[in-house]
Fold these 2 entries.
Entry 1:
Amino acid sequence: MADVRMGDEHGISVIDFGAFLNGAKKQEVADAMLKSFQDTGFVYLVNHGISQDKVQSMFDWSKKFFSLPQDIKMLAPHPSSGTHHRGYSAPGAEKVTQHVYDSAELAKIRGKAPDVKESFESGREDDIVQPNIWLPEDALPGFRNACLNFFWTCREAELNILKALALGLNLPEGFLLEYHSAVDNQLRLLRYPSVPVEQLEREEVARIGAHSDFGSITLLLQDDVGGLEIEDPNNPGTFLSASPVEGALIVNAGDTLARWSNDTIRSTIHRVRAPPNSAKDGVTPERYSIPYFCSADFSAMIDCLPGTYSEERPKKYEPVTAGQYVLYRLAQNY
Ligand SMILES: O=C(O)CCC(=O)C(=O)O
Ligand SMILES: [Fe+2]
């Protein structure tokens, strides 16, 4: 395992995924990746197959989009409904919460520390359940195509990662692909404006509050600013920084996968704060990130995966469809 694992960032393994893609060390990569998911719920993959040019180009489009005047961005408004996740959300529109379902409690949390981020979400173009919401083409020519192309680029990476994950779980390589055939995925462009560090630390504002993701896996690209933190698995309540690693894709497991794996894989709580070493009296730099949320097919029945339960470790969860589960969790965020 030594040479596919290139090191770690605060305990999160950095893995050379190229050795899976070229077939040289498939099982070693799969094992190392699974171990990192079990230990921390996160992994860094380098040589992940998405070219740096494509990544850079998507960040450039994201900057162009968010630089548009507010009234133009509002031509593609994210619906207020909690079940249609497409289009533009202005700063403060979304407040991520963790397992809070009481509406009075939710209102209190939202009022307290709004998430000062803005986002644009898109999916596959033929999704009739959550149709895309685009700007008029002439507002930012080429943007729509860029999002759609990048969506499918990430889809390819997802398939490879799911193959490795299945191998790590000692399942046939294609096992998880069958549950991810509908491509109910979501590409999200995120911009975190600069905010005073002190306000972040006093929790008067949040960038993205502590939460876990809902789906099976999330592919996350971040710029070089930093600020992403994950809860320390060995020390709940404290956070470790998941610093940017050049050229790496972060992959984290979501709640669906944790449940599916009978909690052998962690869905780790994470948040975005000030990057380490920001001056106390200063403001954070703005930050861009691009998560790609992968969901199991909404119709897929999520029952504990073979090998994750036994007589000593019985199934902890009832079977549920991925759709029921994800939509239930998503609806809490708006
Ligand atoms: O911006 C980031 O690095 C994290 C974003 C995130 O956790 C999310 O959108 O669920
Ligand atoms: Fe997240």
Note: The domain at 5-333 is CATH 2.60.120.330 (Jelly Rolls).
Entry 2:
Amino acid sequence: MVVQLSTRPHQTSKMSEGNQPKVEANILVLGAEKVGKSALTVRFLTRRFIGEYGDIESIYTHSVRIGDRDVCFSIWDSVCPQASELQGWVSEKQLRWADGFILVYSICDRSSFQLARQQLLRIRQLKRRGGVEKAPVILVGNKRDLQHRRAVSSEEGRLLALSTNSGFFEISAAETYHGALVVFHELLDMVRDSRSSGKKAVGIRGIVRSMSAVFGRRRTE
Ligand SMILES: Nc1nc2c(ncn2[C@@H]2O[C@H](COP(=O)(O)OP(=O)(O)OP(=O)(O)O)[C@@H](O)[C@H]2O)c(=O)[nH]1
């Protein structure tokens, strides 16, 4: 069951106050069990760390002003399927819904890193099949405060991100708000970049189409 929650006091229009169009971004938070997906999401939404979160799958909507823009995030805090054959599963529905992905693992849990790798590769593969070369993804190593229990080095995380064209951060949702903030803001930038490069690609395709229409017509004259 997916529960829809809103952190907005009221519904806002599609235009910001300064008449800048409102930016909307659907963010899917994925990762193994107990890596801190809810802790990261709730930290970003409320600035707080409350310790225990339950395991209800939720979609939160949250409006904030970033620079001169109003931004509306919809954040899907997913639950990892229990069955081992479904581990790493990212559904078609989730893929279609999301503009950007946050893949969380715990730096203390190597198997969660392996699952994040699997999910990352699946997203890249399915998006490529749909003609999208660069889906915005950020890999997040959480629980950085637990250094004495570290099982995944920073280099391994960074390398995986580099080799898959993803962003990378190590954070502690328990210790600071700043890490969560940077993750969501960086992903928003990536989403906006991917939208504008998508538009450019369509623009170039449009020019090519109109040129071939002109040349095509000439040939038939
Ligand atoms: N030390 C430490 N504990 C954390 C951190 N983030 C989350 N936790 C703890 O890890 C446990 C799991 O956190 P959740 O946010 O519920 O993890 P989740 O991935 O949403 O869990 P599920 O939805 O049940 O899969 C909780 O006990 C949190 O208090 C962190 O940065 N440091």
Note: The chain is about 40% helix and 25% strand.
